[in-house]
Please model this.
Amino acid sequence: GTRDHPPAHVALRDRLLATVVTCFKRHGAAAIDTPVLELRETLTGKYGEDTKLIYELQDQGGELLALRYDLTVPFARYLAMNKITNMKRYHVAKVYRRDNPATTRGRYREFYQCDFDIAGQFDPMIPDAECLKIVHEILSDLQLGDFIIKVNDRRILNGVFAVCGIPESKFITTCSTVDKLDKMPWEEVRSEMVGEKGLSPEAADHIGEYVQLHGGLDLIEQLLQDPKLSQNKLAKEGLGDMKLLFEYLTLFGITGKISFDLSLARGLDYYTGVIFEAVLLQPENDHVEEPVSVGSVAGGGRYDGLVGMFDPKGRKVPCVGVSIGIERIFSILEQRVKASGEKVRTTETQVLVTTPQKHLLAARLKLISELWDAGIKAEMLYKKDPKLLKQLQYCEDTGIPLAAIIGEQELTDGVVKLRDVTTREEVRM
Amino acid sequence: GTRDHPPAHVALRDRLLATVVTCFKRHGAAAIDTPVLELRETLTGKYGEDTKLIYELQDQGGELLALRYDLTVPFARYLAMNKITNMKRYHVAKVYRRDNPATTRGRYREFYQCDFDIAGQFDPMIPDAECLKIVHEILSDLQLGDFIIKVNDRRILNGVFAVCGIPESKFITTCSTVDKLDKMPWEEVRSEMVGEKGLSPEAADHIGEYVQLHGGLDLIEQLLQDPKLSQNKLAKEGLGDMKLLFEYLTLFGITGKISFDLSLARGLDYYTGVIFEAVLLQPENDHVEEPVSVGSVAGGGRYDGLVGMFDPKGRKVPCVGVSIGIERIFSILEQRVKASGEKVRTTETQVLVTTPQKHLLAARLKLISELWDAGIKAEMLYKKDPKLLKQLQYCEDTGIPLAAIIGEQELTDGVVKLRDVTTREEVRM
Model:
């Protein structure tokens, strides 16, 4: 479930992380860092059915600790502990889950999360729109192919549940059942609702009419006219904000990739408003035109109640955030690199310092020291008298573009011969 | 013992880590990554007296796990598991110790280590010299003030113990007592040797004559002539290599900061050859000329036996490595920043998109979207109608250098007013 990452892996991952962090910084986020270890009680009651996946440590002298499950709950605790009411931050770090790892789908027990969050009381939907813009920028920058960002609102879902006659105590559990609609057909979701969750068949069918809808501004307008839903205060609020969100996304020029999708529920307990999830699309094959989803690569939403849970006086700080699923993206790009046969360089060495004759170790050591001091990335073989062929072979194996050659003649003349490893061109300088 | 890191902290730390990683890459190292969780048995028996500081996890279904204590043992396990006999790698990551944290001295239960290691069978002392060059480069690049790098060799120490009549079974424990010489006077170390460790007073005194010596090539030559030490095979080997090391360090031009110091022992069990430690120096006060050490900021050494402990057939891979004590360095630089009153920027935002009148949110959203798409780091206030003064104040508070101002007139003219926040100069463009 955990694994070592060899150099080719880390080199590619660092490239991905750099793209993500560059985007987070472009949006003015500051970085914070919280410990891997949290008090167990900090994590309990935040993750719904997933609480059982939390890694627990042995009793450390009265302290019951656990490994963090995500970066959102520690962020909320951080805000509350430090009485911060206003912050835009990113955090790129590993989280831990005692899951049965599905390693082929890029799921492990230890994996990176890349989070961007905006905390504070602001005018509605401006920060929410920025989160969606960020997802759009990152997925475009990474050139992952076609994608769609599904958007919904917990208030709309709760409104739907209410008008379908579901008691409020069953909203969260119904939510996590709806959330399975991306992995199983409606019939199965319906039977879980009726069988396991105890909803009436009529209520389930009624829910089904709503949660299978998706569209854009037109659908928002249509639901705002829906005689039952428009009577529900929560749903009306959510639909009004959804309309505002689409206005802002139009100004950002990204509505082409956004789908208002009532089946989107997201499993975590702490969401309170807008929720969203980005999925990559792939043409199924040449005969079928409909693209199929190859999995979620980013998600997030608004969680206005979480910070208050850590504040002794319950003071709330509204928050909205996005998490980029870097491990999933990594698996896809890794497969692509493999298929293309591209060789990922694992070092950045610019020049190998070489000697063509024996007894020239001192000359190599002096030259490489000068290169390092000048900030040039340089290597040499750790042998007293390596063969020139071996040295040049090392350049080819590792992708070092230049060899600096110093022999007796060069030492006498006070020059260095620089060889382009690929073209074999040489200059003395 | 663990702590949150606010933005100003992370910004400064990232600056330090970037310097360290740049140096590691300059020397051609590739990055690997290993999990925070290791099997408990991997870690036991490697850290001498510090084994009690290892954090243990609850039984995870038959797997007894622990949090890594350093990055060296996981690296050795990685080499053995993957049958790698040759590698230059760096790893920057957090490690965990159940220590009583001395937070004023920059010691915590969760902290970064920055390691560079060279594994492989090579001609003697070339990789070892490179490790010392790396320490020299990093401490110079960070401009931490004067420093000295103490060097010794476990073989020389063991030779000293042997000629002083200590049985081999007591070498490691004697070593960890000698290691305390940088924190307590010889008299106390001597009494621990005689009292707790059970050495004879004569043997302890004899050891004392050696371990209080320090110098350069002259001292190496002197010890090579020492009638007893030169008869000891291990000591002779170590002294011969030490001489070679000083030759290479002379070619690197860094012997001015290197001290061959027989009191240096280093506590960890796994060292087998050269060991070293860098300490920062500080003039004690104006009256005393002798600089005093303000603590160790880097250390390392050769551990030729560790990989073999993880190989089922015991195959050895010689290794030498260095660890940069980034947390200690951080405390020093943090104090310096505090004293200077310098304000560390926590974001990199280049421009704030502002409007001077009401009802211009759409204009701001359109402009900021264009800036982001052009790769420019931009922010705006998340308010529909913020006051211009508030917006400019935000620039001053966060150090954003430019404000892009669009009002009715600019929209009509199709231009943007760009304002330098410090000089208040404005241009329309």
